[in-house]
TrEMBL record, chain A:
InterPro entries: ANL_N_sf, LuxE
Acyl-protein synthetase LuxE domain span: 23-343
Higher taxonomy: Bacteria, Bacillati, Actinomycetota, Actinomycetes, Micromonosporales
Descriptive protein name: Acyl-protein synthetase
Protein's organism: Actinoplanes palleronii
Automatic annotation (TrEMBL), chain B:
A Pfam family assignment: LuxC
Highest rank taxon of the organism: Bacteria
InterPro entries membership: Ald_DH/histidinol_DH, CoA_reduct_LuxC
Name of protein: Long-chain-fatty-acyl-CoA reductase
Keywords annotated in UniProt: NADP
């Protein structure tokens, strides 16, 4: 069962009325959101790219929710690089739905059964409060899709070769799930598998977390796939997602090299000068669109990531194929009011 | 003090806090000579083209200007002497401001240590080059030193105990951080905390002005606003439209002219800044402070505020202009606070501006200047008479 089924035209026809209805719903139930739309003169959208987008950072500076306080079931937080924290409010229904859709998305590549799971991370990370919200939530969220979990790194963050070997002895002859952050997979799984001749050919790797550190080491996404294929790992799926649109992940297809949008989500690449939608091949700022945010107005978000759509309805799965290219640097001003960071520290 | 961690950008290397036999006078000829030569270097066309802000600095340091500043230090009721040792902590991001406060202090005959941020670049580098090229009396290098040092509280602490006056720029957080280091009992701080600045535009004055005057006003305003990304303490942020009736015609023409000027200058605002402005503008809309937000172009964001009590006092981005309408300057007075520094104006009579200043009564706003002069540094700054701060007085009664 796949959630990557709709051709672009059909997807837009299906999503636009839902997203327009969400816009109206959030206007009616989230006053700050309504004020933003009124102040910017929004009336109606005839295309997905006409829908009013919010900069994702607004969830760090404002409390945006469309549910009464007594229906808040879960508050998700993400730590940003500046120390600000996004706050995402879910009611029971939204929390259940995002988990259900996330499951459907990953089951597209994992199948309906839970697989034995190798986590390329350390259990100690769950105790580290500083990194927990981002990395820990990712690991915990994904771990529900596996069973018989084994951590590939010990409590000190060193590779636990024995644990990996034991895992492979027990589960290595049938499909198993490997999950981890891209950089950790490269550093702690690929190199160890290569050096010790581990057989990962039945593994299905799901990884995320950005390419920056790898690009610094001159490892491109293409190189990453090629090298992992060298240790037998050919079923590899990178994904892109954020806490502000929890439950929605954009998943790399079986053909590799690009991310696809599930049926309930889409992306728009915008020109950072005119803010108009850019055609395939032109890089710009990435906007993510999803019908899952029903308890907060996060259904149309402008990210601070740069991206490019490679093609539409021309890949392994239908819809837009795209890549995330990197992060927009944060705006910095010159100015008198600039703190002496060294002195303040 | 471990001098190995101190990088000397200007001046003689050695212990910064060692006692010195050198004596400078107020308006010392050796300092005047040095600053005049520095001004000539900064005003060379090649340098001024690369860093236009060095032009204004060079102008400020011309001999005639300096002699005027010295003359103002003299008093008929006391003898005027240097304050002594002065420790300057300028902001990292405004490349030229350290020169203004240091130069006035040097002119007053002080021994100065200026802490230069390791992030200083661009125009600051050009200034160090110029400083080091000047053929100066050796006493200058021994008494005027500019240093960069890393995260070292010991050095800041030693210089704080060494100085008679500590000059702290860089805003509230910088002031609070530096104040953790005690001064000697007779020492004092001269602080430059977070400030906010505004523009006031008389709607009757605008409508009465001819097109050339309106254009010139906007050129001045654009320089004030965009030069330091609207983030300098004296950069105008909210524009108060002063007068009754519908302001739409004035505002529209003002913004159209502003866009033309920005176009002509070739100024750009990058995507990150554009997003920053959206975040801040939407934030003001979300809380109800702004009823309209417009993004005609990345370089200009225009907001309509619900009232003069809703003005943001934090930086909201380069080229972000909230507008608020107020009936008269007098009505603006209650909205002004101690944090407010410069009000740049267009279209008012001198009497109106004086009445505004008198109504403010020193409770807020230190400078009222015409459009185009907001960033022009002066010896009176943030309400302080800097030459007076940099000197001490001896009275002789016979």
């Amino acid at each position: 069962m796949s959630v990557f089924t709709l051709a672009q035209k059909d997807k837009e026809a299906a999503l636009l009325p839902q997203l327009a209805a969400l816009t109206e719903f959030h206007r009616a139930h989230c006053e700050p959101y309504d004020r933003i739309l009124s102040a910017s003169g929004f009336t109606a959208a005839s295309e997905i790219s006409d829908l009013p987008w919010l900069p994702v950072r607004l969830f760090k500076t404002l409390e945006l929710k469309s549910i009464p306080d007594d229906e808040v079931f879960k508050i998700l937080t993400s730590s940003g690089t500046t120390g600000d924290v996004s706050k995402i409010y879910l009611d029971k229904a939204a929390a259940a739905e995002q988990q259900r859709r996330l499951a459907a998305t990953v089951q597209t590549v994992l199948g309906p059964k839970r697989l034995p799971m190798l986590l390329v991370d350390t259990k100690a990370m769950l105790k580290d409060r500083r990194s927990f919200s981002a990395r820990g939530a990712g690991v915990l969220g994904m771990s529900t899709f596996g069973r018989d979990h084994v951590w590939a790194l010990d409590l000190d963050g060193q590779v636990d070769l024995q644990a990996i070997r034991d895992f492979l002895t027990k589960h290595g002859d049938a499909p198993f799930l490997i999950f981890g952050f891209t950089f950790l997979v490269w550093l702690h799984l690929y190199e160890v598998a290569r050096d010790h001749g581990l057989d990962l050919s039945n593994g299905i790797l799901i990884h995320s977390g950005g390419w920056k550190k790898l690009v610094d080491q001159a490892v491109s996404p293409d190189e990453f796939r090629k090298r992992l294929a060298g240790v037998g790992l050919t079923r590899i799926h990178n994904y892109y997602g954020m806490v502000e649109q929890i439950g929605t992940i954009f998943l790399e297809g079986p053909d590799g090299g690009a991310l696809y949008c599930p049926d309930f989500a889409d992306v728009v690449v915008r020109d950072p000068e005119t803010w108009a939608e850019l055609p395939p091949g032109k890089p710009g700022l990435l906007e993510v669109v999803s019908t899952l945010p029903t308890s907060y107005p996060g259904h149309v978000l402008l990210t601070e990531d740069l991206g490019v759509v490679h093609g539409i309805d021309d890949g392994a799965w239908p819809g837009k194929r795209f890549s995330v290219l990197g992060r927009l640097p944060r705006a910095e001003a010159r100015g008198c009011s600039d703190t002496y960071k060294e002195a303040a520290a | 003090m471990n001098s190995a961690t101190v990088q000397f950008r200007f001046g003689a290397e050695g212990d910064l806090t060692a006692p010195s036999e050198d004596r400078l006078a107020v308006g010392d000829e050796r300092v005047l000579d040095f600053l005049a030569k520095l001004a000539r270097k900064l005003l060379t066309p090649a340098l001024a083209r690369r860093h236009p802000e060095l032009g204004s600095l060079g102008f400020f340091l011309r001999p005639a200007e300096l002699r005027r500043a010295v003359a103002k230090m003299e008093r008929d009721d006391a003898l005027v002497f240097p304050r002594g040792n002065v420790f300057h902590l300028p902001p990292a991001n405004v490349d030229t401001i350290f020169v203004y406060s240091w130069a006035l202090s040097a002119l007053a005959g002080n021994h100065n240590v200026v802490r230069i941020s390791s992030r200083a670049a661009g125009a600051a580098e050009a200034i160090f080059e110029a400083l080091n090229e000047v053929d100066a009396d050796p006493v200058i290098a021994r008494t005027q030193r500019m240093v960069t040092y890393g995260r070292d509280d010991a050095i800041t602490g030693a210089l704080s105990r060494w100085c008679d006056l500590r000059v702290i720029w860089g805003g509230d957080a910088a002031v609070d951080a530096i104040r953790k280091h005690p001064l000697r009992p007779s020492g004092r701080d001269l602080t430059f905390p977070d400030r906010t600045s505004w523009a006031v535009l008389s709607m009757p004055g605008w409508r009465a002005a001819d097109p050339a005057a309106r254009k010139a006003a906007v050129v001045g305003f654009a320089n004030d606003a965009y030069w330091f990304d609207q983030a300098a303490c004296s950069s105008p942020r909210t524009v108060f439209l002063i007068g009754d009736g519908d302001p739409a015609d004035v505002r529209t023409e003002f913004l159209d002219l502003l866009l033309t000027v920005v176009d002509q200058r070739g100024w750009t605002v990058d995507a990150a800044m554009a997003v920053e402005k959206r975040v801040n503008a939407y934030g003001l809309a979300a809380t109800g402070a702004a009823t309209a937000v417009e993004f005609p172009d990345n370089r200009i964001t225009a907001l309509t505020l619900t009232g003069s009590d809703q003005v943001p006092r934090h930086w909201i981005g380069a080229g972000a202009f909230p507008f608020a309408q107020v009936g008269s300057l007098t009505e603006l007075v209650p909205a002004m606070t101690r944090q407010d520094q410069t009000v740049s104006h267009f279209g008012f009579t001198p009497a109106e501006l004086r009445a505004f200043a008198i109504a403010l009564g020193g409770r807020g706003v230190d400078r009222i200047v015409p459009f185009g002069s907001a960033l022009t540094f002066g010896a009176v700054w943030d309400g302080y008479d800097l030459p007076a701060e940099f000197t001490r007085l001896t009275t002789v009664t016979t």
